[in-house]
Amino acid sequence: MSHKKQARISVFPKGFMEELSDGRMDLFEWIELAGKLGADGLELYPLFLQSTGESYLAKVKAAANQQGLAIPMMCSSPDFTHPDPLFRVKEIDKMKGMIDVMAYLGPEDFRSCRVLSGQNRPELAREDGIRWTVESIAALLPYAEEKRVHLVMENHYKDGFWNYPEFAQPTDIYLEIIAQISSPWFGVNYDPSNAIFAGEDPLRLLDLVKHRMITMHASDRYLKDGFTLEDLKDYSVQGYSEALAHGVIGKGINDYDYIFRVLKEIGYDNWISIEDGVNGLGDLEESVHFLRLKIDQYLTV
Question: Cβ of 86: how many Cβ atoms within 10 Å?
Fold first, then answer.
């Protein structure tokens, strides 16, 4: 008797991102902590890796396996909107390196690398940003298919190490880009909180991209005292809006019952990655528990 594939939960250590990226925290320490959270897998970020050599990656995979964790997702941040074509070629080459990493680390049934557009530099023209992004992702797709790694474009806000927010943050630009890319190895990584950061409706966006969803990020946001949703439109160019705080999933602004009704409608059975832990591992553990309940409520047959 075959078992139906079911949505699974991975965790991304947003609260330890700087420490893991600059070496103050060891990736193996995080893997051990993550093993206690009740998740099914890990989402990594390129700077968490000390090396992309096979001997090092073998140790990472073995450490995750020991904790009962798969590594299905890589939160890579290519910057395809740079005006220098040589810079974009180097970004494509770096992405091929991450595809290789995920081909090795990821489980046989699914592995993915995030793709983005790039930074919304002040001099960037809309038509250039769209064209360069589409061309760059298209250049990667044959390699991704060869390695059996999905490329997933996130409706993104801003990589923590970028100077400027995401070029494709506005829904109309994001939709224009993904509409020009057709491949079974390309789809959407939906993030409801990023839509809130962009001052847009996350549920409207979900309805627009639901049939192209391959993976999902889950987190939640709270309005700080004295702020309104209108304040999100006045965020600092080189930072996150001060109106919003992180917190346990299911207790903030996002309507997860609506989101899970849509996931049920489309028969979603892939990875949901929690991007949080800013307030500590307790929040992450609570969020895993909340999502597990929602999966059981909406997505278990």
Answer: 8
Q: What is the DSSP letter of 238?
A: T
Reported in sequence order, the residue ranges of the chain that DSSP labels E, i.e. its strands, are 8-13, 41-44, 70-74, 112-115, 150-154, 186-190, 213-218, 220-223, 244-247, 271-276
What is the percentage of the chain residues whose pLDDT exceeds 70?
92
Distances in whole angstroms, Cα of residue 135 to Cα of each of 66, 90, 132 = 40, 14, 5
Query: Is residue 225 over pLDDT 70?
Result: no
Name the band, by pLDDT with cuts 50, 70 and 90, for residue 228: low
CA distance 284 to 60: 21
Predicted TM-score (pTM) of the model is 0.93
Closest CA to 111 of 144, 149, 143: 149
Say whether 295 sits in a helix, a strand or coil: helix
- In three-state secondary structure terms, 282 is helix
Cβ distance 247 to 289 under 8 Å?
Answer: no
- Overall average pLDDT of the 172-200 stretch: 94
* Burial annotation 168-201 (CB, 10 A radius, 16+ → b, else e): bbbbebbbbbbeebeeebbbbbbbbbbbbbbbbe
Written as six digits, the tokens of 146 are 């060869």
- With a pLDDT cut of 90, the percent of the chain lying above it is 80
